[in-house]
């Protein structure tokens, strides 16, 4: 039995043991089988569901950082945690009234955390460049998990699949390249013709705005720490960020989308300010390949 088959069997077991539970409830129960970082009070606030870390025989059952999903290495624990904040809650809940969105506990949270950790440690030898921080805290398997959570969550929210095990199984049948394109179009408002992304400046600005919003809501060190194991890093000197940081970080994510989506290289002028686009574009072009 493959690693994925074992995981799907386990998720199916949890679903069978909770026949009246919604997909939202199941996703949050599954979060308890990932790692402690994903069961803090801050995750309870973000998801609207309090889930303790499961101890004993099943501790960390879903904390698998190298699961092959749609042909790409994916951090399963990260996927489950992000999915728990992606699937709609039945009815209106208190967490719906906050400014947090599923982006903030997935890709925007990864990118925002990388920027804040870099800024807090830029005068030490722990993390010397923003690029290093991004590769460490918003790496390949994080992005694949984030995109999987977005796509899988959408199929459940739109009623295509009722069970998480079924949705993950079906997701795995489709190449990752197609999922990336779906994400670009549905989550970021991308316009794709053939292998060409026609509105890269808009996409970069949309990424940047989500990251900026995340940073604005995530100044607390405990929240950043809830994303990753950051032992040894200084979280006390978090400072503000700037457009240069945000641009570099958004292009880091965009490069993943372009490469893994099988899209042509991009050459464009980003907006001066992502949230005030009428101010126009920067004079210098950027290249993403």
Number of domains: 1
SSE order in H/E notation? HHHEEHHHHHHEEHHHEE
Beta strand count: 6
Low-pLDDT segments = 94-100
Strand order of the largest sheet: 1-2
Q: What is the share of helical residues? A: 40-55%
Summarize the main sheet.
Answer: 2 strands, antiparallel
What report would you give on this structure?
By secondary structure, the chain is mostly helical. It has one domain. Helices cover 50% and strands 6% of the residues. It has 12 helices and 6 strands. Strands 1-2 form a two-stranded antiparallel sheet. Strands 3-4 form a two-stranded antiparallel ribbon. Strands 5-6 form a two-stranded antiparallel sheet. Strand 3 (192-193) and strand 4 (196-197) form a beta hairpin. The longest helix is centred in the middle third of the chain and has 18 residues, at 140-157. The radius of gyration is 19 Å and the shape is globular. It starts with a helix and ends with a strand. Mean pLDDT is 88; it is low at 94-100.
What's the short version?
The chain is mainly alpha-helical.
Q: Notable features of this structure?
A:
two-stranded antiparallel ribbon; 6 strands; 50% helix; 6% strand
Strand and helix map with partners:
Elements: H1 3-17, H2 23-31, H3 41-47, E1 67-69, E2 72-74, H4 76-84, H5 107-121, H6 130-137, H7 140-157, H8 164-172, H9 176-188, E3 192-193, E4 196-197, H10 200-217, H11 221-225, H12 243-260, E5 266-268, E6 286-288
Antiparallel strand pairs: 1-2, 3-4, 5-6
